[in-house]
Write a structure and sequence with these properties.
This protein is α+β, with helices and mostly antiparallel strands. It has helices spanning 30-57, 63-74, 79-119, 137-163, 173-178, 182-185, 189-200, 257-265, 299-303, 343-364, 389-397, 400-413, 426-438, 447-460; strands at 11-12, 18-25, 204-205, 218-220, 225-229, 244-250, 271-277, 282-290, 307-312, 316-322, 328-336, 368-372, 417-421. Strands 1-13-12-9-10-11 form a six-stranded mixed sheet. The protein has a four-stranded antiparallel sheet with strand order 2-8-7-3. It has a three-stranded antiparallel sheet with strand order 4-5-6, with no helix packed on it. A hairpin with a 5-residue loop joins strand 10 (316-322) and strand 11 (328-336). Helix 1 (30-57) packs across helix 3, helix 2 (63-74) crosses helix 3 and helix 10 packs across helix 12 (400-413).
Length: 542
């Protein structure tokens, strides 16, 4: 296995730790919408001010500065609202730091590839594992200029990170840049302004265990009545006691409604967020809460009843059912999806494909689904696949991060575990060792179907390649049997099949102990041997 990198061990992915459900706020009165807009605008301004203060602190942030910011916000809202705003600010700053680190890693990958290719002679051919030199002196010159530009960007990003500077836009950088391309976005300035203001509102409240219905700021009763604790400057808009405003709309969570009702009845923490969908003109209420950490099942338990190996592609999932010995069962299954169109359409396509996959896994009787632990961070750079624009778009379109998160959460509801495996060589070895043997006139095997087998076998702990260490061509008896096969003591393996008694060839005893008669030989190699070799089955591999 010279040149093959070390493979990471498979592991069971941890289950989800949170739940979120949403319902529409219907039949709101004009006064209700006026109050919601006023509260969102006021608290959004406080959140923007707090985020600016947090970014100014940088790495000098401490518990004292946090407490000082919260005290300043409390005077203009309430203690609970101030706590929710400061917590959201810290989460947003931490997310910006993680994105900054990912950006630095991407720049480093591009710089490393450029340096490698620039160091090679012009026109040098590449290999499967490393890119070659550039095709012409002109391309070499332009790439050298790009290397200098990336090194400058990398140095600036590293300086920002060391200084604790982050660049955050409340409302989103994409929506901000849309302001300069209104014609391309088919928006007027008024429409864009409405979206921009709605995205910058802050209408959220963290849950509190032990408080009435799990939240004092945004309270939802078991009957679905929604009331909001107004900030101090807007207390004159209250229509209920203790500075609260009760909406005319009620909510009823159709999904996980019983679980939500059990939590608020027991006064357990539930967080709420109210937001406006500007395109539809609808208001929504989202409820979320944490679940206790679910202990993942051991890897051996997940392997006990076999797995479903899933190969992720740009337009479909290729899945294959494998028993616990690693043998393919039945025919491959494919679950297509279309990732074109809007974000909502892509998300719905992924959910539908995963739902079909999980239902098939339940019918197959397995306890785990094996999937590759994909990360295309280094593969998306134009320096590695500069001329292959379509290929870069292809791998960029595969929803690896969202797919893993959604699959883990949906599988947990079905009682299925997710086993993540190293993605190295699955397509290559699957096509080499499994595509052709399993292809029949009635079964069409693709490279992706074979990759699903490779992924499932790796999750089960079996080697992907069916046969390893073949006997030498000069003397087959020297190396013995192939090593990647089930041992004689493995239960369920195919044993040596004795000949049937009713149609056994002449001269063969009924017990199946056939003896070879003497034969003439002209060479030492063809001489009869007194040792009798028994070939183990190659179907059940271990």
């Amino acid at each position: 296995m010279g040149g093959v990198r070390e493979l990471a061990a498979p592991f069971v992915a941890p289950g989800p730790c949170g739940v979120a459900v949403r319902d529409r706020l219907k039949h709101l009165t004009p006064q209700d919408e006026k109050v919601l807009r006023a509260v969102g605008e006021h608290q959004g301004a406080l959140a923007s001010r707090d985020l600016r203060a947090r970014c100014a602190d940088g790495l000098e942030h401490s518990a004292d500065t946090w407490a000082s910011r919260k005290r300043d916000l409390t005077a203009q809202s309430s203690s609970r609202i101030a706590g929710a705003i400061t917590k959201a600010t810290h989460d947003q700053w931490a997310l910006a730091r993680r994105c900054q680190a990912a950006h630095i890693r991407t720049l480093e990958a591009g710089i490393g590839m450029l340096r490698h290719r620039l160091s090679l002679p012009v026109g040098a051919r590449g290999t499967k594992r490393a890119a070659g030199g550039y095709r012409s002196k002109g391309e070499w010159f332009h790439k050298s200029r790009r290397l200098a530009a990336l090194e400058a960007r990398h140095a600036a990003a590293v300086r920002d990170r060391q200084a604790g500077r982050v660049r955050v836009v409340r409302g989103g950088k994409r929506l901000l840049n849309t302001r300069h391309h209104l014609a391309d976005a088919h928006l007027t300035e008024e429409q864009w302004r409405e979206r921009w203001e709605a995205e910058r509102w802050f209408l959220a409240a963290d849950g509190e265990s032990g408080k009435r219905f799990g939240n004092e700021t945004i309270r939802v009763t078991p009957d679905g009545e929604v009331s909001i604790k107004l900030p101090a400057p807007l207390a004159h808009l209250a229509n209920a006691r203790h500075g609260r405003y009760t909406l005319a709309s009620t909510v009823a969570f159709a999904h996980r409604g019983m679980e939500w009702a059990d939590r608020i009845t027991a006064n357990r923490a539930v967080a709420y967020r109210i937001h406006l969908d500007v395109d539809r003109g609808r208001w929504y209420l989202t409820a979320s809460w944490q679940r206790p950490a679910v202990k993942t099942i051991p890897l051996e338990t997940a392997r006990a009843r076999g797995v479903i190996g899933v190969d992720t592609n740009a337009d479909h999932f290729a899945a294959y059912h494998l028993d616990r010995h690693g043998n393919p069962v039945g025919d491959p299954r494919r679950f297509p999806y279309d990732l074109s169109g809007t974000t909502a359409h892509r998300d719905a396509q992924i959910r539908h494909a995963l739902t079909r996959l999980l239902h098939w896994a339940k019918q197959a009787g397995v306890t785990a689904i094996a999937i590759e632990d994909l990360d295309f961070t280094t593969e998306k750079t134009r320096e590695k696949h500069g001329r292959k624009k379509r290929f870069r778009q292809l791998i960029s379109g595969i929803p690896t991060g969202k797919l893993k998160a959604r699959l883990v959460s949906m599988a947990a509801e079905q009682g299925l575990a997710i086993v993540a495996v190293d993605p190295a060589y699955t397509s290559m070895w699957g096509a080499q060792h499994w595509q052709k043997p399993l292809a029949t006139p009635h079964r069409r095997m693709s490279r992706h179907d074979a990759a699903g087998i490779a992924i499932g076998r790796r999750a089960l702990g079996h080697p992907v390649r069916r046969r390893t260490a073949p006997p030498p061509h000069d003397r087959s008896d020297r190396a013995g049997h192939r090593t990647a096969q089930a041992g004689p003591g493995t239960r369920g393996r195919d044993g040596t099949r004795p000949p049937a008694t009713d149609h056994a060839p002449g001269g063969v005893p009924p017990n199946g102990t056939r003896k070879r008669g003497p034969s003439a030989s002209n060479t030492v190699r063809d001489a009869p041997s007194t040792h009798q070799w028994v070939q183990d089955s190659l179907m059940h591999t271990g």
